[in-house]
Design a protein that fits this description.
alpha/beta; Rossmann fold; Helicase, Ruva Protein, domain 3; Zinc Finger, Delta Prime, domain 3; five-stranded parallel β-sheet
């Protein structure tokens, strides 16, 4: 057993040994009470690595008398599924834990689904990806609950580490370890709420530390060396990666410089520079927009520089871009106006293009009535340039107004011009 990783050995054996996720499996939850009474519903467990999906499944199995079969969908085949189906037919009911459930193919699902539906197989599926995006609807519909797990708090991780240190049977309890509360806290913080990483780091620290006078003495420098990059998580294209992109954009939109830099740092550590640059460029026009039109050009220059430089130097222009966007005036009026126009078209609010706006660059255009257009540049108006009061929208939409200016930054000046032109138009319809 000692050859197995500490994180594996310390898996909870029943519900009472689960640390964290009390909103799902705490003693006052419906799930805890059902399992204690011997009833286990099919369910999906969704959360980041190390939050306890596998631990909860094993704890539920340890709290029931059901035959338990763990499978990983990345390596399981149709034969594995058929064996479990055969076991279910023999015993009447089995508990199947299916890790990485979103990777199950259609053939495997078709073999499994009828038995989940009739209750002979109780399915506990685990996934790091959003089940509403990546789990087949047929599986979702047969799972009564979708539980979203949270990262463990530093206090919960410290509790787990202390349990591993004193456990003589499964943990490190048979060794004399000299480690301080502060050092345990540092390990917990470095693990970033990931129980598996915390236990793995503790085990690595234990074996990297020197034994002096029969005691394993843990030093701060060992923890610091082994902690680098341990908190980084977010596969390219995975749900967590898109959550990070979403958090970055919402933090910039909310003008929180520190949160924005935190999420940018996390994204850059995943290595997908192109996706980050694309999102930053979208943000420049979606969230800053007309309030500061120069930002779009600045962010484009920064993202092009970042792609030319590559990581780690790419972080320098991107940091500039993110901070500038955070502290810039903001407006979403431009794309909102366009969306309003698109919605009007989808609702059937269309009409004929006025005759004087139609193409007249060919012989015969006058015969078709494509006449009457007035060239605005021939009608100067103050320092604005040229403007003439003529109809541009179709007859049935000539009073439509899609643009609603935001009084912020540079758009405040644009809004003044917009309102002035509306006034002139209304005076001389």
């Amino acid at each position: 057993m000692q050859n197995e990783p500490l994180a594996f050995r310390m898996r909870p054996r029943n519900l009472n040994e689960v640390i964290g996720q009390q909103h799902i499996i705490g003693k006052n939850t419906a799930l805890y009470k059902m399992v204690q009474k011997g009833y286990v519903p099919s369910m999906l467990l969704y959360g980041e690595p190390g939050t306890g999906k596998t631990s909860i499944a094993y704890a539920i199995a340890g709290s029931t008398n059901l035959p338990f079969f763990p499978l990983n969908a990345t390596i399981a085949g149709k034969k594995d599924v058929e064996q479990i189906v055969s076991e279910a037919r023999l015993t009447g009911k089995v508990l199947l834990f299916l890790d990485e459930i979103h990777r199950f193919n259609k053939l495997q699902q078709d073999t499994l689904l009828p038995h989940v539906e009739n209750g002979s197989i109780i399915l506990i599926g685990a996934t790091t990806e959003n089940p509403f995006h990546d789990v087949n609807p047929a599986i979702r519909s047969r799972c009564g609950e979708i539980f979203q797990l949270k990262r463990l708090t530093p206090e919960e991780v410290v509790e787990l580490l202390n349990r591993a240190i004193v456990d003589e049977e499964r943990g490190l309890g048979k060794y004399a370890i000299e480690i301080s509360d502060e050092q345990l806290k540092n390990i917990a913080i470095a693990s970033n709420g990931d129980a598996r990483k915390a236990l793995t780091l503790l085990e690595s620290v234990f074996y990297a530390s020197e034994e002096i006078d029969g005691k394993v003495k843990v030093e701060d420098r060992i923890i610091e060396q082994l902690s680098k990059r341990i908190g980084v998580y977010g596969d390219k294209g995975g749900s967590h990666f898109y959550n990070l992109l979403s958090a970055l954009q919402k933090s910039v939109r909310g003008s929180d410089v520190n949160a924005s830099l935190y999420y940018l740092a996390h994204l850059l550590e995943t290595g997908d520079l192109v996706a980050v640059c694309r999102r930053l460029l979208v943000m420049a026009y979606e969230d800053i927009g007309l309030a500061n039109p120069h930002v779009g050009a600045h962010v484009y220059a920064a993202t092009e520089a970042a792609k030319a430089l590559g990581l780690p130097e790419a972080r320098i222009p991107l940091a500039n871009a993110v901070i500038e966007m955070c502290l810039s005036e903001k407006s979403n009026s431009a794309y909102k106006a366009l969306d309003a126009a698109i919605e009007a078209i989808h609702e059937g609010k269309t009409g004929d293009i006025p005759m004087h706006l139609r193409d007249a660059h060919y012989a015969g255009a006058k015969t078709l009535g494509h006449v009457g257009y007035q060239y605005p540049h021939d009608f100067p108006i103050g320092t604005f340039g040229g403007w003439v009061n003529q109809q541009y929208l179709p007859d049935n939409l000539q009073d439509a107004e899609f643009y609603r200016p935001v009084i912020a930054g540079e758009e405040k000046r644009m809004a003044t011009i917009y309102e002035k032109l509306k006034t002139l138009k209304n005076k001389n319809p």
